[in-house]
Amino acid sequence: MASNMVSNNTTEEARIQAKELTSLQTVSKELHELAERLGKARIDDDYVETDLQTWTTILEKLKDDVNTFSPSIYIQENPKEILVAKMYVSKTLQQPREREKFRESYGPILIKNNGFMATHIGPNNDTAYVRGLGEYSLGTHKIRFLFTKNSIHYITSFKVVSALMPIRGVSKSSYEGYGWSSMDEIECPGNQMIFNRNTLDMKGETSFEIELQLDCDNQKISYVNQRTKNKRELNVDITKCPFPWQVRFSLYEVGDCVHLLP
After folding, report:
1. How many Cα atoms occupy the beta-carbon half-sphere of 17 within 13 Å?
2. Do 39 and 126 belong to one domain?
3. Is the full-model pTM beyond 0.85?
4. Could you tell me the residue range of the domain that residue 215 belongs to?
């Protein structure tokens, strides 16, 4: 019985994939024909406003047709092309990635709970770093974590750094990170610590849960404080923080702890 169910599921998946492939081939053919018409019009300089409206209508219809049979297939446009955008079909296959874990540390850090928790173990207060396993260069990624501290008097921070940058933060290539501190300061290249007086978010707190988002495609990072619902965003200069990115946490006081959440 179980084998029949598996067989039926496999057959149905194959049928759906075949249908998607046929639809994709049809759309590709229609796009190719439209592109040829557009190319000829551009070369001959032979088109009017009504032609542009017609071609735009055809393109929008093709987009709608694609969305009806698979949301993973989409039409992209290059707005830099003259006359109308250059169009092509792309099928995105997103492979599931493992949950973020801690991989390496510098200083008195204990990594435990199967790599999901890192704690400053002392015996003295001192700067220590712990960095995630994941490397990010494409797409958008969200990482949730809980920071807990014993007091409000010492600073912790989280940021993205280049995987090319040593864990201890000293780089011969002058690569630097971008992020935020528990004092609500923006940490960015040039050792700048920019404090926004209008945003009191983590300052004065001994615990905060954060959802950090890495938007590699648009070269920016942002976070949402799960308690205050405040959101902050920061552009990243990839000449100073090149891909692939990793997430790095800075702890200072004995007992400081960061826990990666599902």
Report:
1. 7
2. no
3. no
4. 102-261
